[in-house]
Amino acid sequence: MQTKLPEIAVSGLLIKKNKTLAVAESCTGGLLANMLTNVPGSSKYFLLGIVAYGNQAKISLLNVPGKVIKRYGAVSRQVSGLMAQNVTKSASCDYGIGITGIAGPGGGTARKPAGTVFISVAGKGKTDTKKFYFSGSRLVVKRKTVLKALSMLKKFL
């Protein structure tokens, strides 16, 4: 028996439930939006994808307060949650995903090593945020992050 690709499974659920989605990505550089829009019929549910790689983009495009970034860091539970909530509001959709992290191999610290990622799913009046540590190359970390985001959204639905 062949298993559905995660993006196909999530797409099917969103279409079946007549729900819409927007995503705000940082360390994945648009990979989540790319995977979702590779699925035929994605225009029925996918409304907006923002790649907010730099802090200024998070502030100006996603309304993440600069003081939150300064206090907690761009790679934090707080920023990820606000990214998910605010992209949902911007797109006037049912669900939003916010992703921020350090894909590596450099850029990490002792507190936040390369591979540290925060993923948030917002919708139904709540936000679920989880912290992960993924190992592997930059591309592997990005792929693992996107697969985990799809899994979180599937559970949220």
The biggest beta sheet reads: 5 strands, mixed
Mean pLDDT level:
95
If strands are numbered along the chain, what order do they take across the biggest sheet? 2-1-3-4-5
Determine and state the CATH class: Alpha Beta
> Could you say which overall geometry the principal axes of the C-alpha atoms support?
globular
Low-confidence stretches: none
What's the total number of strands?
A: 5
Q: Tell me roughly what share of residues is in helical segments.
A: 40-55%
Corresponding CATH architecture: Alpha-Beta Complex
CATH superfamily: CinA-like
Give me the secondary-structure category.
Answer: alpha/beta
CATH topology: Maf protein
Please compute the radius of gyration using only Cα atoms: 15 Å
Strand portion: 15-25%
Please render the helix and strand layout as text.
Elements: H1 6-17, E1 21-25, H2 31-37, E2 46-51, H3 55-62, H4 66-72, H5 77-91, E3 95-101, E4 116-123, E5 126-133, H6 138-156
Parallel strand pairs: 1-2, 1-3
Antiparallel strand pairs: 3-4, 4-5
Helix pairs in contact: 1-6
Structure description:
The protein is an alpha/beta fold. The protein is built from six helices and five strands; from the N terminus they run αβαβαααβββα. It has helices spanning 6-17, 31-37, 55-62, 66-72, 77-91, 138-156; strands at residues 21-25, 46-51, 95-101, 116-123, 126-133. Strands 2-1-3-4-5 form a five-stranded mixed β-sheet, sandwiched between helices. The longest helix has 19 residues, at 138-156. The model has no long low-confidence stretch (mean pLDDT 95).
